[in-house]
Amino acid sequence: MTAGDERRAVLITGGGSGIGLACAQALAAAGWDVAISGRRTAVLEEAAASMRGEHPGVEVATFPADMGDGEQARALVADAIERFGRLDGLVCSAGAYESRPFDEMTDESWDAIVNVLLRGTAICSMEAARHMAERGAGRIVLIGSVSGFLSEPRSAHYAASKAGMHSLARSITVDLGERGVIANAVASGFVATPMTRGLTEHPDQAMVQGVLARLNPLRRAGRPEELGEVVRYLIADAPDYLAGATITVDGGQTVMGGIH
Questions:
Q1: Residue 215 located in a structural domain
Q2: What is the dihedral of CA 184, 189, 195, 201, to 10 degrees?
Q3: Which residues contact 13 (CB under 8 A, 6 or more apart)?
Q4: Distance (Å, rounded) from C-alpha 8 to C-alpha 2?
Q5: What average pLDDT does the segment 13-37 reach?
Q6: Residue 97: active-site member
Q7: Which pTM value belongs to this model?
Q8: What is the mean pLDDT of residues 7-32?
Q9: What pLDDT score was predicted for residue 193?
């Protein structure tokens, strides 16, 4: 996607921290106007202030929204389009996780994860894709997970949602690629984010290092900025022919087959 001197705008859900924030920072550094959303207003404003200071020529907007609420997810895209007058990219990175055995799940626990990760992502993508198809161009990146094909214990709702996100990227491209809308997914391995802080900052660091040594050949957690650079490429620089793919960024975790 080339733009010359024309400004480009991207919306990033879950953009206040973790992988989503790293994606926002990478795209702001590339000169894109950025809208970030999340449930915590103070976190969003702090992230936005930092990006504005680092990239004074870039417009950064915040939109508090709960991706588990379909109407908020739908309104979020409309608000971003109204703010920027266009939407060239969408990154769905809103996170949710719960550890629960499958036989102890309830409708409520299932919905709490699936509604954020898959339903909210689908609604945002539908709204963005319609706008992009009318304009004849647009990029969508869905932050999936290796859990989409390496299901770990006690996370069926999370794994099913991530597998659905991988499939959704393919379906968006199949239906709308001819009209210029390209979607891809990124299957993330274990990344050090606020959501995984319980392990990465555990007092028993010898135990943590032992887990990481078994997790992937690099023997470490991923860094959010490593995912951010991959997403920046997919949104801003990748050729159109890279379409409907799920790109694994996991330090080789799937090469090892997960935790041994």
A1: no
A2: -150
A3: 20, 37, 38, 65, 67, 73, 76, 91, 92, 93, 94, 120, 121, 124
A4: 10
A5: 98
A6: no
A7: 0.93
A8: 97
A9: 84
Do 227 and 18 touch, CB atoms closer than 8 A? Answer: no
Task: Give the Cα separation of 199 and 32 in Å (integer).
Answer: 34
Residue 167 one-letter amino acid = S
Query: Can you give the CATH number for the domain in which 165 is found?
Result: 3.40.50.720
How many Cα atoms within 13 Å fall on the side-chain side of residue 32? 30
Q: Is residue 3's pLDDT more than 90?
A: no
Residue 192 CB burial class (10 angstroms; 0-12, 13-18, ≥19): middle
The 3-state DSSP composition of the chain as helix, strand, coil percent (nearest 5) reads 50, 15, 30
Write phi, then psi, for 35 (nearest 5 degrees). -115, 130
Task: Tell which residue, 135, 120, 160, 152, has the closest CA to residue 85.
Answer: 135
**DSSP 8-state symbol, 80:** H
What is the four-CA torsion angle of 5, 80, 47, 230, rounded to 10 degrees?
-60
Q: Strand ranges (DSSP E) for the chain?
A: 9-13, 33-38, 60-64, 89-92, 138-145, 181-188, 246-249
Q: Which two tokens mark 85? A: 């007058």
Does residue 214 lie in a domain region? no
Could you give the percent of the chain with pLDDT greater than 70? 91
Total number of domains constituting the chain: 1
User: Of 97, 158, 233, 241, which is the active-site residue?
Assistant: 158
- The domain of 134 spans 9-196+225-249
What tokens appear for 1 in the block? 């996607």
| 174 within a domain of the structure (yes/no) | yes
The answer as to whether 18 is a domain residue is: yes
